Input
Amino acid sequence: MTGTTGTALGAPAERREGRQKVTGAARYAAEYTLPGRAHAWPVPAAVARGRVRAVDTAAALALPGVLAVLTPGDAPRLAEPEDRTLAVLQGPDVPHRGWCVALAVAETPEAARAAARAVRITYDTAPHDSDLTEDHPDAYEPEDVNGQPGRLEHGDPEAAYAASEIRVDVTYRVPPLHNHPMEPHASTAHWDGDRLTVYTSSQGGTTVRSVLAQLFRLPEERITVVAEHVGGGFGSKGTPRPDLVLAALAARHTGRPVTVACPRRHLPTTVGHRAPTLQRLRLGARPDGRLTALLHEVTTQTSRVREFVEQAAVVSRVMYATPALLSTHRVVPLDVPSPSWMRAPGEAPGMYALESAVDELADLLGLDPVELRARNEPDREPGSGAPFSSRHLVECLREGARRFGWAGRDPRPGIRREGPFLLGTGVAAATYPVQVSPSTAAARALPDGTFLVRTNATDIGTGARTVLAQVAADALGVPLDRVRTEVGHSDLPPAPLAGGSMGTASWGWAVHEACAELASRLAAHTGPLPAEGIETRADTTGKADADSPWARHAFGAHFAEVAVDTVTGETRVRRLLGVFAAGRILNARTARSQFTGAMIMGLGMALTEGSTLDPAFGDFPESDLASYHVPVHADIADVEADWIDEDDPHLNPMGSKGIGEIGIVGTAAAVGNAVHHATGIRFRELPLTPDRILAGLLSEG
Output
């Protein structure tokens, strides 16, 4: 490993935009103070289902500084969107509480907020249903869950399970979860004739441009999208959200630049969330621990606006060898806000349930949980039968166990005490698929000896600028400090979104190819470079999206130590260790940050984060960070992430796998398994809040 000016990938280079962010020089979507800029504030629907009968804007328009109030009756008309969550102010129907029914525009954010509160809406209400149950009469089995079959079955799983000598039949519940990025969703839009410019907080500016072109019936070349700095998204900014469309509508209506910055209280109902899941796991095994059947059945919900299915059962198609497998989903359409992407969609809740059930099986068999997982290691992907491009899960488990001191663990639950605290340790595996999309990039050599790399990637705080510079420097064979990167602007070569842990692999592939070609051209060039330099371009279409015979996944292992307070029911995680196999690590510093950040998010999933859907209103009461509890510094003790060296030639030129999401996968299960080891009680519903823990302790006492 070389220093930060070296050429080797893997160096712990500091992120390039760090100083801009800590000094306030980095501008986010709501911070573009264009001349004449106005501000808009959405009016959310106050009913769970119905129609807008009338909108009284008189009081709002009479307030000082108010410019307009857009309503379903007078807002500019859009083309029918593919994603119907973007059809805002296009009609009177109210599909769920929180749906935007008007938009107040004013000179200041305060005036816009006051105007929004002064708008009076009259509704015709209709009966609504927001209650998810396993036996809901409207439940159906989707054919597709985000690109994968909704149902996969091998062998005769029901018969194999019934014939199994050892059986586990358990149900786990994960509540609705919310993304809550540090920077709430925001967009600033400006029309110049028939040209539209938007500054938006999005994980994918190229997608934003194409969606806006379709909605406003414009050629893409008349639209400019800037997403230079994005303050997190966790999936909620993976596709365009209503703030983008509302800003463009208001700007067109008023003829002025308009900023829409969503209040945090609006986020749970307007930008997506992780849908709740009810997961039944049935594991059949022989006395030696080898699985004979694995049945993973998921019930979840979607909205009536658009279908989104949390594909939680897909993990069972990846993890363990079994002759009989059932992995299936049922989804219930309800009058609720639309669920959407949230960090490791499917894998995060699915692995919580699967890895908890595997732990229950280990207890029943009297086997060490690490050993049980190793005994069921498959030689091919169970769901597809394809060979793994690389799979070092057992190595992660063994290395994690060694570093954690697992061998000294007393397997008996409820034994270790420290005053009022019960102590326990737990383990869980992790997996996340390797995904990649076609991308383009340009690389230019300049006469001063520096290089410029350009691609419309999005840096959502992960250090993409820095890592892409490292990829370029490595391909060019030059010091890192001679490479500059430009990202986050639609005038740059198109690139896919930062999501699905595929950003760096996708953009980096194109950057590598452009730089490799540039290096070749420079080697053949004689004399000084022209003033404009020499530029090469790359497009990985046909390569990045080519079919692969390999099952490509990252893997990992989580270990947790907890202390459960028998007086208060509070659980503290004293140690959290993650060991991962994720291909070639391109930047040790930013990778460790990604792993530990996701692990902390998984800790929140286990202990503090959870939402409820109020059946009377079809809305989430936990609408801010005072009621939706994310982990804080006091919750975090010893969190360590590391990785094993993994050489996988079947991925991309860098040999890298995505790392943004695998850290959250399995963390909640490791914590939950540790709580069981500490208390002897199996809790099967998240989060493991003090009231639930204390109730369990009291019932056992």
